[in-house]
Amino acid sequence: MRILFATPETCDFVQVGGLAAVSAALPRALLPFSDIRIVVPGYPQVLRGLDDLKVVGRCAGYAGLPSFRIGLGHSTDGMPYYVVMCPELFERPGTPYGDARGIDWPDNDVRFATFSYAATKIAVGDADKNWSADLIHANDWQCALIPGYLEWSNRPLPTVFTIHNLAYQGVFSQDALPRLGIPDHAFHMDGVEFYDRLSFLKAGLVYSSHLTTVSQTYANEITTPEFGCGLEGILRKRADQNELSGILNGIDESWDPRTCTSLTRNFDAGDWRKRSQNAREIRRQFGLAVSRGPLFALVARLVHQKGVDLVIQNAKAIVDAGGQIIVTGKGEERFEQALRQVQIDHPGSVAVKIGFDDEEARRIFAGSDFTLMPSRFEPCGLSQMYAQRFGSLPIGHRTGGLAETILDGQTGFLFESPSSHGLLSSVCRAFSTFGARDRLDRMRRAAMGQAFSWTNPAKAYASLYQSAM
User: Fold this and answer.
1) Residue 256 falls within a domain, yes or no?
2) Which of 19, 39, 147, 172 is the most buried (most CB within 10 A)?
3) Residues 390 and 437 grouped into a single domain
4) Looking at the domain assignment, is residue 258 inside a domain?
5) What whole-number distance in Å separates Cα of residue 269 and Cα of residue 339?
6) What is the pLDDT of residues 240-299, one digit of tens each?
7) Which part of the chain is the Glycosyl transferase family domain (predicted)?
8) In whole angstroms, how large is the CA radius of gyration of the chain?
9) Residue 349 sits in the same domain as residue 209
């Protein structure tokens, strides 16, 4: 099978969220089953990271979209990457989606419509005369116009569309339709119209051959009003037609505490003395006091979805009980400021670092006793898998992928209500377990023994591709 994997980010070059990790790992896991190539926008980080990048095609503008070039290069391990080269759209400072302040670019509709249109040109063989795809796998709203452009241009090609987070939909004014080349006849309730506006995500839901999301629990949840974000009707319809699947994400093999080069000291299950060296070092790096109490970690985007406010509300209780907290991440300014204040209120017991560094995150997982994941909803979540592999027991709300990957009382703790009290109830269970060394050791061993590889998800996707084709 020739598969084009379209994504707006990949941790090979640039990462904002968990999609980047999936977009680097899943295509590699699919290599035994397919000739798979990744297509990404030509951000500066991508252009710098591909030493062998060569232009293989040029495409004229379409409607109000600019012209662009298509480059082809390879990552250091040989993964083929197509790059949509359009300097005025993608060669900007900041993140893939906004400026350095985190404010979205005002022309994101044009940016990601151009990217989606370019992906279709590659897939049908118009961009690179030496390659075309049998199927496109598109990810999240930034790629969601891909199946739409194929439909509107009458270029039939199977598409699989993965919803990584339904809350981010790419909604724009109806005025954008003509400049994006979206026909008027597509703007209706069963097309791209969403409360009198244009929804990129809805195009993916309507026109794709098959929909997936990143856990079976989340696939069920998004067909309900509570989690459906106004799109539960169409999702329920696709589910009833057996066109919505949940395939749990995996994590790559680098998340192995025995070999990870980022750690202060490598360790194995049961080698708690070596693991404790990571705890001592991460406390020192973050300026925490020497302590015999438990160390709690929050490694997350600092947004409402992640339940950051619930951690803030319980911080004093954790510190008063003898615990310490390390927070690292970036997100909404209100949460960043509130967390800084918590650090000021509890010097030596709470440490906050605004920003994200992968190697540092690995050291935090390896040094902490518990990882806080009180997400209000969590399509899959990766941190709970990372934490378990490194012996940090996750504390999570029973939702989405957390419900599928945390075994309550065995490899972590789950609570039913996404509330301050719900989180505190599991934090109390964690303190009790920390004081019972045999039970703590058993849970750590069980957590570290969890298998979260990409092997089974890759087989599931390969089978789905065959069915869609």
Assistant:
1) no
2) 39
3) yes
4) no
5) 33
6) 999 999 999 999 989 999 999 999 999 999 899 999 999 999 999 999 999 999 999 999
7) 284-424
8) 23
9) no
